Amino acid sequence: MSLHIVNIHGEIEGDYDIVTALPQNATNGDVIKAMFPNLEWINRNKDVDFYYLDSDTPYAPKLSTFRSWWNAPYKAESEDKE
């Protein structure tokens, strides 16, 4: 496992720095779950899954994602640059 610092900025109330251990072969879904530990699966429609980003917050933002992307191997931004 390796440690990653995740910076979350934007429409989420406040700014957060999260340090978490990701599995060796982390998927995109693993990274999203690390950033949003209260993530809760809601439903699915064909090949799209729907999640609450924070199930403890009233009117929490929702995330919809293709299952193929969710299960794809995570590739850090630094791995893309040459």
Order of helices and strands: EEHEEEHH
Strand proportion? 35-45%
Overall mean pLDDT: 76
Structural class: alpha+beta
Please compute the radius of gyration using only Cα atoms: 14 Å
- SS summary, helix count: 3
Shape verdict? flat
Strand line-up across the major sheet: 3-4-5
List the uncertain runs.
1-5, 7-12
First and last CA, distance: 24 Å
How many strand segments? 5
Main sheet specs: 3 strands, antiparallel
Helix percent reads 10-25%
Name some characteristics of this structure:
single chain, 82 residues, alpha+beta, 3-stranded antiparallel β-sheet, two-stranded antiparallel ribbon, 3 helices, 5 strands, flat
Could you give a quick summary of the protein structure above?
The protein has helices spanning 28-35, 67-70, 77-80; strands at 2-8, 16-22, 40-45, 48-52, 62-66.
How would you describe the overall organization of this protein?
This protein has 82 residues and is an alpha+beta fold. It has one domain (2-74). The protein has helices at residues 28-35, 67-70, 77-80; strands spanning 2-8, 16-22, 40-45, 48-52, 62-66. A 3-stranded antiparallel beta sheet has the order 3-4-5. A hairpin with a 7-residue loop joins strand 1 and strand 2 (16-22). The protein is flat and about 35 Å long.
What's the topology here?
Blueprint: E1 2-8, E2 16-22, H1 28-35, E3 40-45, E4 48-52, E5 62-66, H2 67-70, H3 77-80
Antiparallel strand pairs: 1-2, 3-4, 4-5
